[in-house]
Amino acid sequence: ARITLRQLLEHAAEYDYGVPAFNINNMEQALAIMAAADETDSPVIIQASRGARAYAHDVMLKHMMDAVTEIYPHIPVCVHLDHGNAPSTCMTAIQAGFTSVMMDGSLEADGKTPADWTYNVGVTKTVTDIAHLGGISVEGELGVLGSLETGMGDKEDGHGAEGKLSHDQLLTDPEEAVKFVQETKVDALAIAMGTSHGAYKFTRKPDGDILAMHVIEEIHRRLPDTHLVMHGSSSVPQDLQDIINQYGGEMPQTWGVPVNEIQRGIKNGVRKINIDTDNRMAMTGQIRKILAENPGEFDPRKYLKPAREAMQKLCKERLEAFNTAGQASKI
Ligand code: G3H
Ligand code: 13P
Ligand code: NA
Ligand code: ZN
After folding, report:
1. Is 74 helix (H, G, I), strand (E, B) or coil?
2. Ligand 1 contact, 26 CB (< 6 A)
3. What is the pLDDT of residues 251-260, one digit of tens each?
4. Among 29, 276, 318, which is best to mutate for testing ligand 2, by the most ligand atoms less than 8 A from CB?
5. CATH number 3.40.720.10 is the correct assignment for the domain at 5-330
6. What is the value of ipTM here, to two decimals?
7. Which in 73, 117, 181, 307 has the greatest CB count within 10 A?
8. What are the structural domain ranges in the chain?
9. Per the annotation, does 277 bind a ligand?
10. Are 245 and 292 in contact (CB under 8 A)?
11. Nearest Cα to 79, choosing from 104, 92, 62?
């Protein structure tokens, strides 16, 4: 069944667990997530970015979301817009059937310019005012994602802040977070504490200097009832880097967000954990392997099925680690 983000995160807060939000762009990813949710009795958040909407078409996404809830009627599914860049983007997503939207006003609509307070509160409040009338949940973001090591925003996939960022911009201010939630009435708040999107988050295993989990603890202390969201939360597992590199890929050594740090976040109000890169890597590792080992193969199912299974395994591991497993039948 479909569930709103608000309803799902309220349940997660009551029972002390987190919910991974996995990105989809295609049928294989949607089915992989649902198979993992079914296997572990977990509710899930399936999210689609603006890039996914452009890639797959809103109509295809809408029918895929409906299809998975029909195939797995016992699994609560929240369908969420990831990183809406403007109120209009959020409205078209709602029209397309999303029951939850992110208005990311941490950057201006160009997706590159760090926004000021007035802009962020303004666009976010516009969306909550309208979305809440229709029972749609809203995620906002305060603080800019990017590396505390280099001061750089996301870059590899063409969106993210441009230019060098200060620690003030890269770390959500706990006092401002309180004001932001009061003024915008967001259902969930994404915060910045040193993570960035993509595979290249850290040049070494992160410690508290570059992954500022203490910021989450401070925000949770001031906002105990607010559902917090961690973006850029792929762990970038070593075995997935290795398989990609073993079969012709070229990924320089990198580190992601350790699962135990996310578990610490969940103890401190983190309820939604965004993961895309790990699943991309899981699929790509298998596709590279199958094609390298079977150069004569050209049936897409022969490599997409193992890719799907690798993504299902990754999703299952996260659902278990975040204690999402076992919760679907309790909702
Ligand atoms: O925001 C980052 C998510 O991983 C989605 O990425 O915009 O390339 O679809 P995307
Ligand atoms: P990763 O790139 O770490 O998977 O983050 C995904 C994300 O935050 C989507 O909004
Ligand atoms: Na999101
Ligand atoms: Zn994100």
Report:
1. coil
2. no
3. 999 999 999 9
4. 276
5. no
6. 0.98
7. 307
8. 5-330
9. yes
10. no
11. 62
